[in-house]
Write a structure and sequence with these properties.
Elements lengths: L1 E3 L28 E7 L4 E3 L2 E15 L5 E12 L2 E2 L5 E7 L1 E3 L4 E12 L10 E2 L4 E5 L13 E2 L4 E14 L5 E8 L4 E5 L5 E8 L5 E4 L11 E3 L5 E2 L8 H13 L2
Parallel strand pairs: 1-5, 2-16, 10-14, 11-15, 12-15, 13-16, 13-17
Antiparallel strand pairs: 2-7, 3-9, 4-5, 4-9, 6-7, 8-9, 9-11, 13-14, 17-18, 18-19
């Protein structure tokens, strides 16, 4: 069960399949805190902070391919809205590392990010696509919907990454026009920070370097997405997302001429 709530209202009741015992979060007053801070560019906004607690006491029961019983750590997910700090561009949430309760919950991972505040500025019926996300693991449990290996860091985590606006058009299975954030890696950057107590994310948006893409209109061999880069070049080489290194090179070349 996933609920949206302010951080002050963490105590709730959750029951997993077949369980009747109290699985409430009950963070002790002296719990260590995890602080998540995002510095948000003016064109963007924070997405909901998805928080996962896990428990070795209250198990999640599933079954393997042969029908055998499999016990995994129990899970308890909540959504938290990051709060603006005064009139600054910083948004923050503080999470108890120790979720407490009978299940002895512990903070396992968080998922958060930024998105365009007003996609319509890029045209009529433009919606937000993807990109600008971060996943941070605080234990050895793999988050859901994750892929690849996490970047492992010691101590607190500071993330400062470049992003570019990516306006894409798709035609197959219905027309879609979306504005996304093209960055290093896929939709989410994934980290493992076992000793962190501070996570700071600063996305650097290069608004003047828009990349566009036009999807194919028919399924056929040799028909690829066409990317139009801010230097006027076009590429259709089979990739499904912009070439981040090319965008970086274009920007740095333009900046060096100023």
């Amino acid at each position: 069960m996933i609920k949206t709530m302010p951080i002050a209202a963490l105590i709730l009741f959750v029951s997993l399949s077949g369980c009747t015992n109290d699985r409430s979060l009950a963070p002790p007053a002296d719990s260590e805190q995890m602080t998540i801070t995002v510095k948000v560019p003016k064109e963007l906004e924070t997405e909901t902070l998805e928080v996962m607690y896990r428990s070795a006491v209250c198990k999640y029961i599933t079954h393997g391919a042969s029908g055998q019983r499999v016990e995994l750590e129990g899970y308890h997910g909540i959504n938290v809205q990051l709060q603006r700090q005064g009139q600054s561009d910083l948004y923050q949430a503080r999470l108890p590392m120790d979720g407490g309760g009978a299940c002895q919950w512990h903070l396992s991972n968080v998922r958060f990010g930024v998105a365009y505040r007003n996609p319509a500025r890029f045209g009529e019926n433009v919606t937000y696509g993807a990109g600008g996300g971060v996943v941070v693991m605080f234990d050895h449990n793999r988050p859901s919907l994750s892929s690849g290996l996490p970047i492992k860091v010691d101590g607190d985590l500071t993330i400062r990454k470049d992003y570019y606006p990516w306006l894409s058009e798709a035609f197959i299975e219905g027309y879609r026009k979306q504005i996304s954030l093209a960055g290093e890696g896929n939709i989410y950057l994934m980290y493992q920070a076992l000793k962190a107590r501070q996570v700071y994310f600063e996305p650097v948006l290069h608004s003047d370097f828009l990349v566009k893409s036009e999807g194919t209109k028919v399924h056929k061999i040799g028909s690829f997405i066409k990317f139009s880069y801010p230097d006027g070049s076009t590429v259709a080489d089979g990739h499904y997302q912009p070439d981040f290194r090319k965008l970086q090179a274009i920007r740095k070349a333009a900046e060096s001429k100023k």
